[in-house]
Amino acid sequence: MFLNVDQHNQNKTAIKDDSGYCLSYADVCRTIEEFKALGLPKCIIFCLCENCAGSLIGYMAFENNKQVPLLLSISLDEQLRKNMEAVYLPSYYWLPERKVQELGGDKIYAAYGYALVKTKHDPYPLNDKLSLLLTTSGSTGSPKLVRHKYGNLETNAENVAKVFSWRPDEEIGICDLPMNYTMGLNVINSHLIVGASVLMVKTNLMDPDFWAFIKNNGGTSFCGVPFSYEIMRRVGFEKMDLPQLYTLAEGGGKLTDKMFNWIAGYAKKNGKRFCATFGTSETSARISFLDPEMALEKIGSVGKAIPNGELFLLDEVENEDGTSTGELGYRGPNVTMGYALNREDLMKDDEFCGEYHTGDIAKRDREGFYFIIGRKGRFLKLFGLRVSLDETEQILKTQYPNMDFCCTGNDKQMNIFITNEDIKDQIIPFISRKTNLHNSAFRVFVIKEIPKNDYGKVEFAELEKISNAQMNIGNADRKPDTDH
Questions:
Q1: Which fold has domain 382-477?
Q2: Cβ neighbourhood burial of 296 (10 Å; 0-12, 13-18, 19+)
Q3: What is the per-residue pLDDT across 54-103, written as a single tens digit (0 to 9) for each?
Q4: CATH fold label, 2-374
């Protein structure tokens, strides 16, 4: 069975969530067999995911029984969901039972608070290797998907479990990241494949119930994105009594050196371990791992390749200090098949052929440790979620068809440039709702026109000057803080 769930201790807890469900490995196997008895064809199934047992068991059953799930956030904007449905014509939805009436369609099966609903769309031809679809930019509802093939998820789970040294009788993994996000999915897969347990948590890190649930259920390993650790520091994580929590892992974006040093120092002082990692949807999540013993010595590093994988630099340039820089590339069995922009692309064969170029600019030091130093493409990682600047611009242009927009930014903030003062106050609430990202992720700048060169290309350097100038004016206008 998928993730070898039938080979583990059947009496052991596999999944426990904060909604009240607790499934043993025997429960998981039985439910997968119930799905199999439905006789579903190979088809696209939209899974509206939240971190709970019902959501997870559906994904596992579809993977085992050779359907092709597309994992989407339960909070995805309704119009964006409809747009995705129009492109990919799913034959079924797997969604919370409370959403069935709202969606419509025929309910044919239910388990653990989730239901399988038949749509009006018939199955259509899919590549035999195709096993899973993930969005490249989950918060904007981009129709561009990553095509996983059979074996990608399992081999990455095995290799990640190996490098983390997960043990079935000792590990209780905490899945706080969304399961439709590649890093959250890998937390699940890498624990279940060795017969360990997973805690599925819907409450957020700022809620005391989150930490009570983790403590009461003996959570041992946590994985967060940079924003997760910012919240944890804010809520006084270092003072919490969490005796079972041993592993603190990070992925999904670059920590500041200050934050990296803080969490690595906390781990060392408290007899825990901090493991920095790096990965992408296109590589079924993690491709690198920093030995926790090196965390304070290699501040900011993403480490070296996971077992059975290879990191390398494209267009490598040697620096005077003995380091090298270039675009980060990766080879390994967890590299996916390529992308899809429409349903016809779901018949395509493997286009990556085991090698993926990440678009991230990296440095390799003399000891072979890698550091991410920049990004080549038009993507940001806001709160750990990859967001396409181009897709965001398209969403804005659809809503305001006669306006001109341009988006830039960094992994802390997206800058949205507009040319109409009248809509300024509408932009942030609108795009925050559409992307399901907090208002603080965005800043709006009103300018006369989007600067372009003679070839019609946007002059991003000019936009950066404008944003810096306007922000400096804003800072100068603020009253000095006299409370300190």
A1: GMP Synthetase; Chain A, domain 3 (3.30.300)
A2: middle
A3: 999 999 999 999 999 999 999 998 999 999 999 999 999 999 999 999 99
A4: Rossmann fold (3.40.50)
